[in-house]
Design brief:
With 145 residues, the chain is mostly helical. The protein is 38% helix and 3% strand. Helix 4 packs antiparallel against helix 5.
Amino acid sequence: AEFVQRSVKENLGVTVTIGNMEWKSLLKRLRSGDFQVSRYGWVGLPDPHTFLKLFRTNSTNNIAGYLNPEIDRLLDESLQAATEADRLAVLARAEAILQRDVPIAPLYYYTRPYLKVPVLRGLEPELNDTHLIKYMYWGDKERTP
């Protein structure tokens, strides 16, 4: 938060005050629209619908208050698509609208660096950053030429 605060001040000349509150209080404030800028994150399944549905008019997670009947229609249409390719094409159209309208402006993305030995197998990139030990194992040592 302090890094974002400093960056916004240095790059935009805008003074940002940081407020800290417990999660339930933050959600109540966000859902009532009582904020100017907020930290908010979302983790979902590795599927575009998981993220795009946040912008549905009646979504309780639509904290930006974004309203676009075309997005609602496309999300509904994607659920009725005959094939996976058709579904993804419809969702791509919805995403293009959101990119045009810019209802949110992400300032940063969560990252988590890892240091692992090359022989550890089963630790793969995963959207929710969940790595179950039961899928990890020691492989053969990598050989150098």
